[in-house]
Amino acid sequence: MPMIDYLRPKKAGVYRRISGDYVDRTGDLRIDEHEDVVLTPLGQLAGASTDSGLADVIIDDCDFCASIKKSAPGAAVRINGRVLYGGYFRSQWGHFLMNTTSRLWPLFTGAIQGVDKILFFSDNNQDFIPQRGNYREFLELAGILDKVVIVSGAVEVESLIVPEMAFEHTRYFSSEARAVFDAVRESAMETSPGEFSDKVFLTRSSLPGAARDEININKLDELFLRNGYQIVSPEKVSLRQLINILNRAGHIASVSGSTAHNFVFAGRDAEFIIVERTAVVNVYQIGIDLICGISPILIDAYRLPQIAPATGRLFLYGATGQLEAFISARGWSGHTFDCNDKARKKELSGFLKRYKRLYGYSTGIAEWEIGHSEAISEAYVESYAYYQPWLDRRVPVLLADYFSPVCLYRRLRRRR
Question: Is the pTM higher than 0.70?
Fold first, then answer.
């Protein structure tokens, strides 16, 4: 069980509840086979789930669906031979790791032999071929790149193999899900030890727009750098290099999200730290922890001055009580976050400007976030107290505030 002492209390409760929902289905996964069928991508169907009983539909994680029907003359482009259905090729790294790979397990556990092609549908209904980057390198390291076929329309298949997903978020996990990651790691590991750090922090600070949309991310870099961690930007190294870096390290830290999902490639005996950047519990990370048998230390280090829509694009890091407690318990050199009024106003101003540009007047939570509402409200209440003078407009924070009727009225009253 991950260490959740440094989460806010209500979020820790949500974390325990969601973790308890996962069922271990190791050794209990099904493989179906079909002859002469047509597969048609249906995209995301709201409310679809693996137990919804939809006839003639294959359901992937996140409600991505495909219909499966017997072949008809001239129905679609045909693929001959034995074809494994891989689901949807998700072009977002975290979903690629946890969703796109979920049906590949029979190839790496010996459950099936003699597969000619691996079929994926594009998640954005456009033809997508992984010509470069980590997606291509992952498939190369797994030894399956030459078999991968990615299409956006209906396809007829001579002999179709449909493995059950090895992981479904909030529902179940299995050790079979780990097989593809183990294979990629073994393929990537270099025999020469090289020069690697024992402490590594995976940062997002070099991502395009991160300095703007992840406010104070540089302060986290400084904190870990001051305490002996090498700062690594995953997007600046090859996947092979990243895997070697992670496997030589005994202490690995990361901000939450897709960056921390790279823990699937790390050695199991390392210490893992995840700096949380949102009130919503990352259900995929829980799955990764269960699949890989790791127990990271989770630290709430974010503020939530406004409840944003569930798009995960704007984050505000801060020296929360939870981060302060972790630093104190470790005896680390202190953080470099500024907590005076000037700094609070500056970071809040940056947050509100970006919020308006990204979300307009939208507020509130999505339906799937209802189960996280206690943690969201807990973070908001704490942040409201931290930024209250500016949120209440008692003190101007944006340029427009100086010309608002409320501020003008208060200035006139002070002059009387």
Answer: yes
